[in-house]
Write a structure and sequence with these properties.
The chain is mostly beta strands. It is built from 7 helices and 39 strands. The strands form 6 sheets. The protein has a 22-stranded antiparallel barrel. Strands 1-7-8-5-6 form a 5-stranded mixed sheet. A 3-stranded antiparallel sheet has the order 2-3-4, with helices on one face. Strand 5 and strand 6 form a beta hairpin. The protein is globular. It starts with 13 loop residues before the first helix and ends with a strand.
């Protein structure tokens, strides 16, 4: 990826290396146990014979759309709750696969430069507009990069809130929020293992263990959960297309009394992803001759290491009062050493390579979040209220070689020597930032009648950024104020249906907030408003659940060139999207189930100018970069014989553009995935998985120069895996 579009980017820990080489809340705890049955009854638990939980989980309380623990039927917002068991049974080994194939209207624009962790939602793209959480905790995005979480083995559920969400989590959530909730400690014994082999040298190994500790001595006071998952492959791109990773999640619950619980957890993620940055376009297409070629240098390196330590306390002194506190320390160490840009030169017939980049990230975030919820009455009406604060401090250090101008030699389309990274272009310390952030938030729900409820929420964030240039010694400091709020009305004509309307206001940083440079520091946060109406419900005794939503979002204060003064920028731009979303789950006959969703939208730049060749060009009316206007998913499940289940998944993603002028088009694509499960015994299952059945060539992301597409980062070709899961 180019330096301007993906500026984002330590050494392997001995333990990680060894393991990878080997591969070659009282109320909260009860809720966790209940929700964890999603895993207990399947890959995570004591029996594999029950069907995986499916559907939209409209009666399942969630903590992403509201801190009051409301169900989707009680919440005036669009919410997807994807169980981890569903994702695993569908062969979705990564968070990106689970979110984009199961949730509504979400697509991936994964690339090594953004940590393979960037998404689009409701017309907006990137980690600064679609916020990602792990167990409710936000890791502030540095240099547009998110590298954790990535593995679905330890996932209990994924909660996706679509639309502006700053009222809950602060700036950076105009498109929505993705909250990955890990499996929790349980007192019921759990032991599960899975092994996978597949084409392109794929090998996966995973373990899930949980249960009570010291039951005889202490009673049901201590419980634990341990998940370990490792993956490796030779890769389908040659050379430097191999990858390996390791994810470890451990948690210990101490519940000294029914109304008090403490949980300490540590999560480790280590990745060495494929060193693949895309395939050059030849006359606007990818020839079969070069589909599997990698034009990176031979000694390319990418490593990401993340560690999350959290200490959670939940106290419920009464049935109407709950107090929660989370103290945490999060770290990330990242390293890139790559030649990242490849452009086919028609004149020479060679692939010109550029952007020889070495980058290090070192990031540490320490913080604490406290909130309390109280149930009572307001003017004689039933009322629930939550209030809290969040404080944190982030240290970020960026080491790079942006000073380096040398270019790696061009190579033929085939039969080339990839060469090595220039030894004179190594990274040096560039800048360091310190960000201190404090926020307060509140939320309220008043029940106006047995059918009507009214929800309000507000959050104020005050981050202060201090940045120092480690080369020149220059520095600056900037304080922002980010305000988000929401009003929503819910009408429940029956206990199993809801109509709602919502208005919300949110903010986005003009770039990754903790790594803003001085040229952008003077700009205000971008602001966005959304109006949404929708309906959701269940029918046929729960055999059918469905949601409908329509919305309009307007985002202001985009950065734009000053007409007539191409070296200056101002905030005058705006962007909007409006759309319709549908999701349903339907058990329409014995042994048959249909799950699907559809998102149709129109997104455009309303006012956006840019300097091109000394002239100011307007892109008003154009489709935003990387944003498709149609996304659809469909899963058909058929229990066609005793102990046999077939699953067919279809995904459609509309065309997108790699440039503001909408001339560098990336075509729409359709993917088909298959899964065949055989219940060998009550405690073991054999699965056959086929990905991209028709071997579609498609682009996940791409680059353009002067309105012409230069390279596409291609998605996975047809591949096959066999998995065996056993529980005891």
């Amino acid at each position: 990826m180019s330096r301007s579009k993906n500026p984002p980017r330590g050494r392997r820990a001995p333990l990680c290396g060894a393991l990878l080489t080997l591969l070659a809340s009282p109320a909260a705890s009860q809720e966790a146990i209940a929700l964890d049955q999603l895993s207990v009854e399947g890959e995570g638990g004591v029996s594999l014979t029950r069907a995986a939980p499916t559907g939209l989980n409209l009666r399942t309380p969630d903590r992403t759309a509201s801190r009051l623990g409301l169900t989707p039927l009680e919440t005036p917002a669009s919410i997807d709750i994807v169980s981890g068991e569903t994702a695993r049974l569908r062969g979705q080994d990564t968070i990106a696969e689970a979110v984009t194939q199961d949730a509504t209207g979400i697509t991936t624009i994964a690339a090594p430069g953004n940590g393979n962790g960037a998404f689009t939602s409701r017309g907006f793209a990137g980690p600064n507009s679609i916020q990602q959480l792990y167990d409710g905790t936000r890791f502030y995005v540095g240099a547009n990069t998110v590298t954790f979480p990535f593995d679905t083995w330890n996932v209990e559920r994924i909660e996706v809130l679509r639309g502006p969400s700053s009222v809950l989590y602060g700036d950076g959530a105009i498109g929505g929020v993705i909250n990955v909730v890990p499996k929790k400690p349980v007192f019921v014994p759990i032991n599960t293992a899975r092994t996978v082999i597949g084409t392109d040298g794929v090998a996966r190994l995973a373990l899930d263990s949980g249960g009570a500790l010291g039951r005889e001595e202490f009673g049901e006071t201590f419980a634990y959960r341990l998940n370990v998952s490792g993956n490796r492959a030779d890769g389908w791109i040659r050379p430097e297309g191999d990858f390996r990773n390791l994810a470890v999640s451990a948690a210990l619950l101490f519940q000294p009394s029914p109304d008090l619980a403490f949980t300490v957890s540590h999560d480790l993620g280590y990745q060495e992803p494929a060193r693949y940055w895309g395939t050059p376009l030849v006359e606007g297409r990818i020839p079969d001759l070069i589909r599997f070629n990698n034009y990176n240098v031979r000694d390319a390196k990418i490593t990401w290491a993340d560690n999350w330590t959290q200490f959670k306390t939940e106290w419920t002194p009464s049935a109407d009062i709950t107090v929660r506190n989370t103290a945490y320390r999060l770290t990330s160490r990242r390293h890139w050493l790559d030649t990242e840009q490849y452009i086919y030169n028609r004149g020479t017939g060679l692939v010109d390579r550029s952007d020889d980049l070495e980058i290090y990230h070192s990031q540490e975030q320490v913080g604490n979040r406290l909130d309390a919820s109280v149930k009572g009455s307001l003017f004689g009406l039933p009322n629930a209220f939550a209030v809290g604060f969040d404080v944190n401090h982030i240290d970020f250090r960026h080491t790079n070689n942006f000073y380096f101008e040398e270019t790696t030699p061009s190579v033929p389309l085939t039969g080339y020597d990839p060469g090595c990274f220039p030894q004179t272009g190594r990274a040096r310390p560039a800048y360091a930032t310190q960000t201190s952030q404090a926020s307060v938030f509140a939320e309220d729900r008043v029940i106006l009648s047995d059918k009507f409820s009214f929800l309000t929420g507000v959050r104020l964030d005050v981050p202060t950024l201090h940045r120092q240039d480690l080369q020149t010694g220059s520095q600056f400091e900037k304080t922002y104020q980010a305000l988000g709020y929401r009003f929503g009305l819910v009408y429940n004509p029956t206990p199993d249906s809801a109509l709602y309307a919502q208005y919300s206001f949110a903010t986005d940083p003009v770039n990754s907030l903790i790594t803003l440079n001085q040229s952008l520091a003077g700009f205000q946060l971008a602001t966005g408003t959304q109006v949404e109406i929708g309906a959701k419900g269940l029918a046929f005794d729960g055999a059918l659940d469905w949601t409908l939503a329509g919305y309009r979002i307007v985002k202001d204060n985009l950065i734009s060139a000053v007409p007539g003064q191409p070296t200056l920028s101002t905030q005058v731009g705006s962007q909007s999207s409006q759309g319709f979303e549908l999701a349903l789950g339907w058990q329409f006959a014995p042994g048959w189930r249909l799950d699907g969703n559809l998102a149709l939208l129109h997104a455009q730049y309303d006012a956006f100018d840019q300097n091109v060749g000394g002239a100011t060009i307007s892109y008003a009316g154009n489709q935003p970069i990387d944003v498709p206007e149609r996304v659809a998913n469909l899963w058909l499940t058929w229990d066609f014989a005793r102990a046999w289940t077939a699953r067919v998944g279809l995904q459609n993603v509309g065309q997108v553009y790699s440039d503001f002028s909408n001339t560098a088009r990336r075509p729409a694509y359709n993917l088909v995935n298959l899964v065949l499960d055989h219940q060998v015994t009550a405690d073991s299952r054999l699965s056959l998985r086929v990905y991209n059945l028709f071997d579609k060539v498609y682009a996940i992301s791409g680059n353009a120069v002067n309105g012409v597409g230069t390279n596409w980062l291609l998605g996975r070709p047809r591949s096959v895996e066999v998995a065996y899961t056993v529980t005891w």
